[in-house]
Amino acid sequence: MRIAFDAMGGDFAPEAMVDGTLRAAREWPDTQFVLLGVEDEVKPHLAGELPTNVQLMAVTQHIETDEEPVKAIRRKKDSSIVRGCRMVKEGEADVFISAGNTGALMAAGLLVTGRLPGIERPALAPIFPTLTQKGMLVLDVGANPEARPEHLEQYALMGSLYAEAVLGFERPRVGLLNIGAEGGKGTTFTKEVYQRISALPLNFIGNVEARNVLNGDCDVLVCDGFSGNILLKNTEGVAKAIFDRLKKEFTRNAITKLAAAILKPGLKRFATEMDYKEHGGAPLLGLQGPVVKAHGSSDARAVFNAVRQARLYVEQQVITRISDELNRLEGDEHR
Questions:
Q1: 124 and 260 in one domain?
Q2: Strand extents, DSSP E, 145-246
Q3: DSSP character string of 247-260
Q4: DSSP secondary structure letters along 97-128
Q5: C-alpha to C-alpha distances, 277 to 69, 127, 283, 296, nearest whole angstrom
Q6: H or E element, residue 84
Q7: For the whole prediction, is pTM greater than 0.90?
Q8: CA distances from 59 to 56, 76, 77, 82 (A)
Q9: Residue range 46-69, pLDDT digits in tens
Q10: What is the rounded distance in angstroms from the CA atom of residue 69 to the CA atom of residue 149?
C-alpha cells in the first residue's frame, strides 16, 4: 500500500505531519509513505535518515487555509493538495491524507480525482465520539451545504457501507438528523429524505434529534452539509467549554484540587473518549479514489490515527463496494 500525505496542511504543519507519518511508518513497515511538501520547510523536521518506507516528494506550492478553493487549485497545480489528489487519480498512491484547506481538498477531489458514477455530491464523513465509546459516522459536515434529497439518500448508502467495512458495525443503524423523532416531523426537504432512505435496503431507524447524537442512538447520522457543519462546530465548542470550565473549577482552591486529584483518572478517560484525535480522519465519500481529511488541528497522534483509518478504507475496498451497490440498486430500478 502507498499512502500520500500532505506535509503542508494543518495548524501544526509540517512538524506534526512529519512526526505522525514517521510514527505510522514504524508501525506499518509494509506500507510506503510519500510526504508531499515544500522541501526547505519539511527537511528541518526530518531527523536523520528517513526510514526505507518514507519518501519526501517536493512540491513548489502550498494552499493556505484562507484561499478561495477553486481558484487555488487552478492556480497552484503543484501544491501538495492537487498533487496528492492527482496521485490517487493516476494510481500512484492508494490514498491521500490532508489536514489542509477543506474547501480546496474537496474541490481537488471533485476536479482532479473525480466523482464515482452515480454519486452527485461527495460527503465529508468524520467520526463523532459518543458516550457508548463506539463513535458515530456523520455525513455530510460541510462538503455540500446546499444538498438535495437525493444527495442525502446517497450519503445514507455510502455511510452505511463505510461504517460496516471500516468501523466494524454490523448492520449499522442509520438515522436522519431532524427536529423531532416522529416520521412526519421536519421540513418538506427532510420528509422527502426520510421517504427516500426508508426505501433503501438499510437498517434505517428514522429521525434522530441533535440532543441525542452523543448518546449513540445510531451508528450513521445523515444530514445536509450546512446542518452537519453547525452540529460539528457546536459539539466541538461545547466540549471545549465544559473542559475549560472544569479545569477552572478544579483549580479554585485546595479542596477542589484534592477532588480533581481523585477524579483525574476518570476525567482523563472521558477526555480521551471525546477527543477527535482518537478517531482519525474524515473520508470524502463519493470520490473515485480514497481521499481523507484530517482535522485541521491534528497533532502527531491524530495523524497516526488518520493513517490507521485510511489503511482500512483501502484494505476493505470501500469504494468498490459503494460502486457495486449503486450498480445493483440501479439494476433493480430498471427491472
A1: yes
A2: 173-178, 203-209, 220-222
A3: HHHHTSSHHHHHHH
A4: EE-S-HHHHHHHIIIII-BPTT-SS-EE-PEE
A5: 25, 10, 15, 11
A6: helix 80-89
A7: no
A8: 9, 10, 10, 10
A9: 877 788 999 999 999 999 988 999
A10: 25
Cis peptide before 140 (omega within 30 of 0): yes
101 and 1 assigned to the same domain = yes
Angstrom distance (rounded) from CA 55 to CA 175: 42
Copy the grid coordinates of residue 107. 474541490
Task: Look up the domain containing 301 and give its range.
Answer: 1-119+286-335
CB atoms within 10 A of CB 272: 12
If asked whether residues 190 and 314 sit together in one domain, one would say: no
Average pLDDT, integer, range 163-171 = 88
- Specify the CATH number for the domain of residue 273: 3.40.718.10
Q: Which whole-number Å values give the CA distances from 334 to 125, 192, 193, 329, 331, in the listed order?
A: 30, 22, 22, 9, 5
In terms of domains, do 183 and 302 share one? no
pLDDT at 299: 86
Kindly report the CA angle at 209 between 204 and 211, in degrees rounded to 5? 135
